[in-house]
Design goal:
Blueprint: E1 6-17, E2 27-35, E3 38-44, H1 45-51, E4 52-67, E5 69-71, H2 90-105, H3 108-124, E6 127-133, H4 137-146, E7 150-157, H5 168-181, E8 188-194, H6 202-215, E9 219-223, H7 227-237, H8 241-247, E10 255-259, H9 265-274, E11 277-280, H10 282-287, H11 295-300, E12 305-307, H12 320-335, H13 343-349, H14 352-357, E13 375-379, H15 391-397, E14 404-409, E15 412-416, E16 419-420, H16 425-442
Parallel strand pairs: 1-4, 5-6, 6-7, 7-8, 9-10, 10-11, 11-12
Antiparallel strand pairs: 1-2, 2-3, 4-13, 13-14, 14-15, 15-16
The structure holds the ligand CSC[C@H]1O[C@@H](n2cnc3c(O)ncnc32)[C@H](O)[C@@H]1O and zinc ion (ZN).
Length: 443
């Protein structure tokens, strides 16, 4: 009887549901009930139809339903520099191309248009939460909030002036103001983003560590990205950068260390003992020939590893599903073990491990009752990718982001049948066209 059914906002019934927690589970013909932005039930579809009277019922006959993907590292607005400087090593890329271009072009409008372009791409590719480190973080946060996409906004801190701030004092002071503005936001969490050990000296790093602890913020930093970074640090300080950060008291579960391609045994022990988070960006590391993050060794040691795309100027996309495939393939090669970095493991890296790194495992990263309804569906009906024996292996090794069909954040739909519902792509393309003409002319 309809009267006995509980009214809910949304019921999503899918061919397969991968909750991620418990690990390794794939549920056939299950449904997720959503109310007031939260998951209130996950049960077999036959039971869901007896229990709920949904305002909307989405039936996904050939689809896999997964938690939304969490891109833990990027510089969204750099999407406007996609393809500007390719086939270069990190320092040439940064010093001779990217930093001069940032000095010329990055302002509020650049941050707004570049961020929206990156968000459109991320949503299209299954990302529901992104972490960002870039100039004008107030603008990035505002664009994400306006479009109701979740983000961790990392306040940049550098020793030198940029278009956003004049030096460490101003970066930190402006950053605290951004944190205050978004204190009550459901969508935005604000962290500190000291750029790298080679661009931030001890005093501002110490200040960031103290403030982060006081206010309960995370810290994200590029760390051990290249062999050159280690060699230069050894000659200048006599210490590997990770040990310098350990001496300064930065290593803790609140620290998110991005890249980590250069690790010795003691580095891995330090990361494990301190609960420091590692963010692996395999495609950026491959493209800049930076090195290889030893994901399997880190995970065996108990280190939490998640995934990021890095910016579109070094990747050159924001496709986290593609990044999962790369991480699995490279992870096996680096470990010399085909069983290492499995399909289920990379899905966990892009979901629940990221939620843990953000300090939000109770709210995000899996399909469990009580968590936010941040969900994606992948259509597996394409004849060219049949048959489907193991849906998670299929997701990682055989599908691509074009097959991401739906996404919801907070139970609100953002992508339906591959179409973005909240972003005006035509207007955005015009603005991006104007930027690209200006940037190309200056090159
Ligand atoms: C402090 S704002 C971010 C700053 O970082 C630059 N950047 C982008 N990608 C990387 C990378 O892989 N390693 C180091 N720095 C990077 C970006 O251009 C901004 O200047
Ligand atoms: Zn980066």
């Amino acid at each position: 009887m309809t009267d006995a059914l509980r009214p809910v906002d949304l019921l999503i019934s899918a061919r397969w549901v991968v909750p991620v927690i418990p690990a390794g589970v794939v549920l056939d013909h299950h449904s997720v009930a959503v109310d007031a932005g939260r998951i209130i039930d996950l049960c077999p579809t036959v039971q869901a139809l007896e229990r709920y009277n949904p305002a909307e019922h989405v039936e996904l006959r050939d689809h896999l339903l997964s938690p939304g993907l969490i891109n833990m590292h990027g510089h969204a607005a750099m999407s406007l520099f996609r393809g500007l400087a390719d086939d270069l090593p990190l320092l040439t890329w940064l010093n001779d191309h990217i930093w001069p271009a940032e000095g010329r072009f990055v302002d509020e409008k650049f941050a707004a248009d570049g961020t929206l372009l990156a968000m459109a791409e991320m949503l299209r590719c299954g990302t529901t939460f992104f972490s960002d480190m870039y100039f004008f973080p107030d603008v990035t946060a505002e664009v994400a909030q306006q479009h109701r996409m979740r983000a961790q906004i990392c306040i940049p801190v550098l020793d030198f002036p940029t278009n956003w701030a004049s030096g460490p004092d101003e970066y930190i002071q402006k950053g605290l103001a951004v944190r205050e503005s978004f204190r009550a936001s459901e969508f935005i969490q604000v962290a500190f983003g000291p750029h790298a050990p080679y661009t931030v000296s001890d005093e501002p790093l110490l200040r960031v560590a103290t403030l982060a602890e006081q206010v309960g913020a995370n810290i994200q930093i590029h760390l051990h990205e290249t062999a050159h970074e280690i060699e230069e640090a050894m000659s200048k300080t006599g210490m590997r950068p990770l040990r310098r950060l350990a001496e300064l008291g930065l290593l803790s579960p609140a620290l998110q260390a991005v890249h980590m391609t250069q690790l010795d045994d003691y580095d891995i022990q330090l990361l494990a003992e301190t609960g420091t988070q590692v963010i692996h960006c395999p495609e950026s590391n491959l493209k800049l020939a930076s090195g290889f993050c030893p994901v399997d060794r880190l995970q065996q040691a108990g280190v939490n590893v998640c995934l990021g795309t890095d910016g579109a100027a070094s990747n050159n996309d924001h496709d986290l599903l593609g990044e999962m495939r790369t991480a699995a393939l490279v992870g096996k090669a680096v470990a010399n073990d085909a069983a290492a970095v499995s399909a289920h493991q990379v899905l966990a890296m892009a979901t629940v491990n990221a939620a843990r790194a953000l300090g939000r495992e109770s709210e995000l990263g899996s399909i469990e009752t009580g968590k936010y309804a941040d969900l994606i569906a992948i259509d597996m009906s394409d004849p060219l990718i049949q048959p489907v024996y193991d849906p998670v292996a299929h997701l990682v090794y055989s599908t691509n982001s074009r097959q991401v069909s739906h996404s919801w954040i907070n139970g609100e739909i953002h992508l339906r049948d591959g179409e973005l519902l909240r972003i005006d792509l035509i207007g955005l393309r015009d603005r991006v066209g104007r930027w690209s003409r200006q940037i190309a002319k200056a090159d």
